[in-house]
Amino acid sequence: MRVRLPSVRHPHSFYDVFGVIAVAVATMAVVLTVRYGEVIRLEMAVFMTAVFLWAGWAIERILAESKDRSKRRRERPWD
After folding, report:
1. Which residues of the chain are modeled with pLDDT < 70?
2. FRET pair for 48, CA 20 to 30 Å: which of 8, 12, 18, 38?
3. Taking phi first (over 0 means left), then psi (-120 to 50 degrees means alpha), and beta for anything else, what does residue 71 get?
4. pTM higher than the cut 0.70
5. pLDDT digits over 30-46, tens only?
6. Are 16 and 6 a contacting pair, CB within 8 Å?
């Protein structure tokens, strides 16, 4: 069984989005545990905002690709 890492540039499934968000949240937790200050909190807020914007884009892309595949399956080659 081949396991692939989550893709940031070309997300294909929910697991790509979930994997990236899980790594981002874990990174944020570690950084805030080690260092805690006003600047660090601001940087983490900007980082998480970027991650959630990316997640919205990734979900939109996955759904658009799914819709396109569905349309291609419905087309009959003999028509």
Report:
1. 75-79
2. 12
3. alpha
4. yes
5. 998 898 888 988 999 99
6. yes
Cα–Cα distance, 22 to 31 (Å, whole number)? 14
DSSP notation for 26-49: HHHHHHHHH--SHHHHHHHHHHHH
Structural domain span for residue 55: 36-60
Does 49 fall in a domain?
yes
Determine, yes or no, domain membership for 41: yes
In angstroms and rounded to an integer, the radius of gyration of the C-alpha atoms of the chain is 18
Q: Is 32 left (phi over 0), alpha (psi -120 to 50) or beta?
A: alpha
Report yes or no on 72 lying in a domain.
no
15 assigned to some structural domain: no
